[in-house]
Structures are given as structure tokens and as C-alpha cells.
Amino acid sequence: MDVSALEWGITIAVTVAVLLFDVVMIARDPHEPSLRECATALSVYVGAAVAFGVWVLLFHGHDYGIEFYAGWLTEYSLSIDNLFVFIILMAALKVPREYQQEALMVGIILALVFRGIFIALGYQLINNFSWVFYIFGAFLVYTAATLVKSYRSHEEEHPEDNKIVQFAQRHLNVGERFDGLKLWYTENGSRVVSPMLIVIIALGTTDLLFALDSIPAIFGITQEPYLVFTANVFALMGLRQLYFLLGGLLERLVYLSLGLAFILAFIGVKLVLHAMHLNELEFLNGGEHFDVPDITSLFSLGVIIVTLVITTVASLAKDKKDRENDPASA
Q: Residue 193 forms beta bridges with which residues?
């Protein structure tokens, strides 16, 4: 894919401008956004992603357009699953609703930074060592198995209990009140750390873990760094609005983790097949390439869409049945 320096420059400039606009608007008026506000902003972001995909398809070719849509949907579905963790984290750390927008905005910026670093590292690895696809594929299959195991055992996530957050809480003089994005303030005559800093640390470490899953997954769809970057940008941009818009609905998507497990396992297998096609490891097939089938981007997009549709329909059907059987839970 031939992407000019001008295209990269415009993409990065627009991304930074949108982030700065969001930061300024949120800092000026911290509040819990209305459903209308969230729906409007989310429509703009999703519409922009669809339009960008059309632009890629028209100016860079059909295959690259399909790769963008498949990558964007994969990253978006992973981001939706990550919202479960954000909801738990915000509740556990008792972040006031009016300041949750600010915390999420910082989390999104950190996620973009971490993913940008991982994209650069991942691109260098796959360009120089084709066997990395074996590792990426195996890791995604392992992650998929972990999601299924977690679903079956009904394990609850506790992101606020990670070691880094606990260390910060023990060794920093943390105050009682939130004061927007202020990280330090004076309380009872002494300088204290705002609990918002603990929230940012928790979000940062969580984002880092999320990047470990999402970047190998997107490289299983496309190896074009421009598409990997833009798919992640568009997936993260509407995450803040989605958090407030779908807070209640997320709890009803009971099969989402299973759907994501299937998608990750599928992409993991695709990566392993790709690694076998490029095989250079002497202890496998004498260093020769394997004659294995190639999974096209269009087929991958179809699998992702069908899986997400089935997952959503099955989840909502189960939720409706549970509500009918137990009216008290409605």
C-alpha cells in the first residue's frame, strides 16, 4: 500500500485536532453526557469511519478497503468488550459520573499512545522475522481460550486490584475528593495526590494489557501500518460516548466474550496459516514454505460480521428470556 507522507500527516493532524477539541470541551464543562449527545457524537465517528473506508477502497484499492473494515470491526468489538472493564474500574474507584468523561479521555489518549508504540514494534518484527506470525497466532488462540474459560467459570474482573495500582495507593498520599483532571491539590494543609491519578494509572495499565491483544489481532487482518493505525483510531474515538450510551446494554451482551473468543481464535489460525505460507524455520518442513490455504480479507470480514450479529442476537434473546422468566430482574 503506497501511502504518501501527506496522507500520514493529514491523518495524524486530524487525529490530534479531534483529541484536543475533545479535551478542551470536556475540561471546560465536566458533565455526564446526555443520550442525545452521545448518540450524535457516536454517529459522527461511525459515519467518519465508514466514509474513510470508502475513501481507502476508491483511492487505494478494493482489497485495502476490505482490510480496513475488517480491522476496524475487530478493534471496535474488542473495544466494546473493554468497556466492561472500564465500567467495573470506574465503579470500584468511585469516580463521580461528571468526571468519568475526563478519565475516559485520558484513557483513550493513553491507549492511542500505547497502540502506536506496539504498531511500530509489531511492524518491524513482522517485516524482519516472519516466524513472529506463529507467536502472534498462538497468543491469540491462547487469549481466546482464556476468554472461554473465564466465561465458563463466571470469573469477575477486578482491574483496580492490579499490582501497580495497589502500589500507588499504598505509597502515595491520596486525597479523598476528585477535582477534575487535577492530579495534586492541598487538603487539610498538606499536599495530596488526587484519586484521579490512581484512576489514570489503572486506565493506563489496563490499556497496556488491551494493546497486547488488539495489535496481534489487527496484524492478522492487515500488515499495512496505515490501516492498522487508522482502524485503531476510529475504534477508540467513539469509545467515550459508547461508554455512556451502552452502559446498560453492555450487561445484556452476555455472549460477547464468546463471540470475541471465536474471532480471536479465527484470526489466530489465520496468522498461523500465514506464517506457514511464509515459513523459514529450518526445523519445520526443512525451512520450505507450506502449501496451505490463504484466507482472504473478504472472507475474514464476513466471518467477523456474522459472528458479531449472531453474538448480539443470541445475547439479546437470552436476556429477553431471562427477563420473562424473572420479571423482578427487568
A: 174, 184
